[in-house]
Amino acid sequence: xxxxxxxxxxxxxxxxxxxxxxxxxxxxxxxxxxxxxxxxxxxxxxxxxxxxxxxxxxxxxxxxxxxxxxxxxxxxxxxxxxxxxxxxxxxxxxxxxxxxxxxxxxxxxxxxxxxxxxxxxxxxxxxxxxxxxxxxxxxxxxxxxxxxxxxxxxxxxxxxxxxxxxxxxxxxxxxxxxxxxxxxxxxxxxxxxxxxxxxxxxxxxxxxxxxxxxxxxxxxxxxxxxxxxxxxxxxxxxxxxxxxxxxxx
Length: 249
Hints:
Blueprint: E1 8-12, H1 17-28, E2 32-37, H2 40-52, E3 57-61, H3 67-81, E4 86-89, H4 104-132, E5 135-140, H5 144-147, H6 154-174, E6 179-186, H7 199-208, H8 217-228, E7 239-242
Parallel strand pairs: 1-2, 1-4, 2-3, 4-5, 5-6, 6-7
Helix pairs in contact: 1-2, 1-8, 3-4, 4-6
């Protein structure tokens, strides 16, 4: 049997990269998937591909930095599918501005998506899952949130460190209702993000990784699938590293 057969999943930031890979794998494993992104055309492309392979999908335009767009996003999921079992809280933005050059507007824009937006999306999902007495929330941290901004900016790293702590609080709150909340902490994954790194720095990071390569979006998606499935029934409040051994503390 497929690992998430019959479940309903919402993937934010689902138009590309890790979000796209997760949406496609969840659908392949039996979930009905809502793909939300600021790029509606990209979300529609993912959703149409899922449906072409026999799955059920819904494309949604949503900017999680805008609180008034979050409720309608969930309303659309519930209208179409009737429930919500899995949230892959993946929407995020990357920045590599030097710490002494970060301005308040840039800080607020990044935190508006990576922290405030992620919190509001998870909070809304928690309310739905509380009424259902169960669900899975997978937040997205980063190795940058564990080691500090090296290539990533200090603002990006701080936002991801905050997500890790937020996850623990939500897991404690959600446990009595059967809600599992976990964080994924990817290292260097082959997406558009490391393409922004200085080439010598990227090469050094790959060389320092025991597996001597970048991870793939499919490898991250497989951990999303595990956390979305009943295989993870006693896993909550965890921070799961996906970094090829680059950081193990």
